[in-house]
Design a protein that fits this description.
about 50% helix, about 240 residues, 2 domains, CBS-domain, alpha/beta, single chain, 3-stranded mixed beta sheet
Length: about 240
């Protein structure tokens, strides 16, 4: 009996089990079904595939027979579809792709702190983005959010101010509000797609900003917004067939 599929299945199963136990510090003796249920509360990928993983836990017991003193014996062979699927789930749990893998090219809209605020308005209009990254002498100083900018403009207008004068004399640096960063999350270049989805699930964010070390002041490498989710999901579908 050709046992290649059984070996592949068990290899992925054991990798998933070991990874989850390592990540979430559960008891070494905890059974696989309970492990999946517990990790579902903390890991959105596990939660996404929880039903399949629980079924695969039962299938593992059907594949392997363990008799006292004789070790494990393979008594069933899973089909190709099942093996391919558990290997796909294993990749997402044990070797999730980085955000920078999903976005090889991502336009980041920027402005300089000493440029007139009109520059930010023009960037919003031209690029249809909600966020402009503001740099001060090459250092990321903060962000201008389009909705926050609407508020500044509305305030000037309600006070009878000259909007043209305001937009041409106020600078992009003047429009930075440190509190606005509460609506963003900084992550380092090693952040995975799972990490990003988890942050969006925790709280309402405008965007996740990726820098070298995930700290304010560094150059922005990439930025992920909810509008990018379809593109990420498409990438994950292709990730299923990439060679490793």
């Amino acid at each position: 009996m050709d046992q290649e599929n059984a070996a592949r299945f068990l290899r992925s199963y054991n990798c998933i089990e070991a990874r989850l136990k390592s990540l979430y510090s559960v008891r070494p003796t905890q059974n696989f079904t309970d492990l999946v249920k517990r990790c579902s509360d903390m890991n959105i990928t596990v939660r996404r595939y929880a039903g399949e993983l629980i079924d695969y836990g039962k299938l593992r017991n059907a594949i392997v027979h363990q008799a006292a003193g004789t070790g494990e014996t393979v008594i069933a062979i899973p089909c190709d579809e099942v093996v391919d699927n558990i290997e796909y789930i294993e990749r997402q749990i044990c070797r999730p792709p980085k955000v920078t893998d999903a976005f090889k090219v991502k336009k980041i809209v920027t402005a300089k702190a000493d440029e007139p605020l009109l520059r930010a308005v023009e960037e919003f209009a031209a690029n249809r983005q909600k966020t402009v990254i503001v740099y001060d002498h090459g250092t990321m100083a903060g962000v201008i959010n389009s909705y926050a900018l609407y508020g500044l403009i509305a305030k000037v207008a309600s006070e009878g101010g000259d909007l043209t004068k305001y937009l041409t004399t106020a600078t992009c640096g003047d429009a930075i509000d440190a509190r606005e960063m509460d609506n963003y999350c900084l992550m380092n270049k090693y952040a995975t797609v799972l990490d990003v989805f988890t942050e969006f699930e925790k709280r309402r964010l405008v965007a996740v900003i990726i820098t070298e070390n995930g700290v304010l002041g560094e150059k922005v490498i990439s930025m992920v917004t909810p509008a990018d989710f379809p593109r990420i999901n498409k990438f994950l579908e292709n990730y299923n067939v990439k060679p490793f």
